[in-house]
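Hi L.,

You mentioned the student needs an example of a multi-chain input paired with its predicted structure. This one should do, with 864 residues in total across all chains.
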Amino acid sequence: MKLYLGIDLGSTTSKAVIIDEHEHIIGRGITNTRSDYRVAADIARMEAEFNSRFTMLHRKLKSETNGEIDWTEFFSHLQDRFHFLQFRERFYKLVDAIKSTLSSVENIDHRTRMQPIIDNMPDRILSVIRDRFFSGEVSNTSDFFRDLFSSAYMNEIEGKDKGVYDQLVAIYDRAINPIENENIKFDFGQLLTEALVMMPDNFKLNHQLVKSHLEVVAKESLEPTDYVGTGYGRQLLPFEEKHIKSEILCHAMGAHAYFPNTRTVLDIGGQDTKAIQVDKHGFVTSFQMNDRCAAGCGRYLGYIADEMSISVSELGPLAMNAEYEANICSTCTVFAGAELREYLNLGEKKENILAGLHLAIVQRAFALLARSGGVFNEFTFTGGVARNTAVVKYVKQLVIQNYGEMNINCHVDSIFMGALGGALFSARRK
Amino acid sequence: MDVQKENSMLKQKQMLAGHFMDLATAKESGKKVVYTFVPGNLSELIYTFDMLPVYPEINSLQSGMRKKSGDYIRDAEDMGYSEDVCSYVKCDIGMMLQGNIGPTGQKLPDPDLLLLSYTGCFVFMKWFENLKQLYPNSEVAMLHIPYQEAGVIEPSAVQYIKDQLEKEVIPKMEKVSGKKFDVKKLQKKLELSGQAEDLLIDVFDSARHRPSPIDAYFGGVYYIGPIFTAFRGSEDCVEYYQELKKEVDYRVKHKLGPVTPEGVMKEEKARLVVEGPPNWTHFRNFWKIFYDLGSVFVGSTYTRVGGVYDDGFRHSPIDPLGNLAKYCLGCYTNRNIPQRIDLLESFITKYHADGLLVNSIKSCNSFSAGQLVMMRELEQKLGIPVGFIETDLVDPRYYSYSNIKNRLDSFFQMLEQRQSVKVSDEILSDDVLA
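Structure written out for the whole complex:
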């Protein structure tokens, strides 16, 4: 089987997509590692390879059982457990790092007070997070290791001992970075075998069938025939020039592959917004990008989430519960933070403030769309921010308001469009 | 690395050195000095009175290239000029505040006359108001050039300018220089200007060839040096363009590409037309992005900023004041948007360009206003890829290499894609024909 790899090194997350010779996606991988683009590329690729092996396994079982068994639910549970085991490995490393950081605290009184909190924390956090994985909750969010751990950790230390609260946060801050950025080598076969043991009882009958294919799938070569790197970090990849492609072209190509009638693409990523016009081939005819200022991009949402002490994935759902949009005049990230605090002080509901912030982002993106020539049918929204339900709501609203009724596309794979475009470029290269 | 020097470049350098020496010794030699602007400049008239021109915006761009503009702009901002004011103005004011030392290291003389002819750029008026404050003893002459709103040169506009020349500008020049206006002297200079302009257009039109022997943007800014600054109307100017044309003809004959700072461009991969001035603070760095990838500019509107000769206008001794009026009215930034689109379209078709790039200048409203409309109209009309970047004239804070490179990478890849589609479409039509 010929495989093609696309890697999109974004400013916030790195994505990898593997497609087969029929240009079907067989694997997707994503990481928020940012310390080193090479590490990020390796982790994203490894995740995409694991995901590809799941796809291959799924295909084999489906074919062997002549389509009589619906394996979808089985694989959903299996992958949740597989990802939990990956999480657990990194979790243990982080706990060790936190303990080691704690031991270096010089103030004996503080250290003594923090010790029992840290000692009791691992089992409780792991149990909470395991439940979140096993219930399928994690796979429905875009939470990464850091998000999962930090929210559970903050809950754990909240209200325990106010005198050492700040230090407990500082210990976590110091420990998380190296652990989060470590490229842990996992063994697919070993993790999968362990995940099978954790499967709910009603799926245990299928274990033997899975195991009979596991060895072949785990060892199958996933070496790509060709590959393309794109995104902000693309020049840092150890790739030859011919394997590097602009993210503008890749996003357009990815969006066009899913929605071939697309003529306008809006991509909101971590630090830039792109308004792209494409032709019938999926080729870019013109584009506009934000210049000099990244307000209104994904990082803006990250900043707002930090200001409100919630995770990024909670922003959209909260904003969807607003009664109206508070008027956020500023499009500067820092000033928006000031406006946010001002509204909170005045007693405004956070849902309404968040709705205003989401609307402000989309209005900014629409100014860029206008600069690029407007919106033409069909319109496709891509990028990590397209995962945010409130942003999607306002994008749809403003497209219709400004440009009339038309097909508006927003795919569940929107964050992978750049990587998919890269993989497609490599597959179509002559 | 030094730019590979050709004879024409050496001649231009010599001419400039001579001019700045004349300026440095103007007070001793008794020559009067006129500060004026490049677009629609009246060099022939100034020299008719044996006065010497100084162009503040040329000083600013020179300061930008010599990496001095950042300090000058800071000084002007310290004085209270806003961040949004034209960076040419701030650079010029800053340079004057620091002693008015010109590009050759010699002090520029104070102006005896501030000749404000403003074509398309209304900042010029405020600029000279400020210069008048710096040089309260200088005379001021104003020449208002009406914008070509209807896209044609109206006879009434020509008469309006002639009247100003006769009643305002020439009497002021007579007063400052102490000399009577000699129309025959002016006519002789206008004739020489026309000869130089014919040669310049031949040079620009050489971009029809593949490979193009010239880069009409980065090389072009050197080619327009003599004609848009201190030398139009002189024998030296004609000789410069004769030399330049000889060099260009040689490159055409031997199928050589343009000369870049790293030698003759080896392979021409993409032919571009550009709208907007270049960035001066990182001129070499900016140029390198293009020649490294084999991209050559075959047409540029910036090289028409001092005057447009593509539609047949030439300086001429017939009706000399009317001729000067038409020259001023025809300047690029004095044209309306549809005229600018037409000019760009003619460059794209005449010189077989693969794409259009807009370099939008933060500081320059007269160039930047309307560029998005122009770009979209040309994209839709001609079906060519268009690219858009933003830099500044001489404010180094607005040149972000990584942002520009990132956008240009995408633009170059768009061109490649389009060329591959063009090839497959051509193959397809060949098949159909077969």
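You could point out the following to them. The interface with chain B takes residues 232, 245-249, 281, 283-289, 291-292, 371, 373 of chain A (CB under 8 Å). The two ends of chain A are 18 Å apart (CA to CA).

Best wishes,
N.
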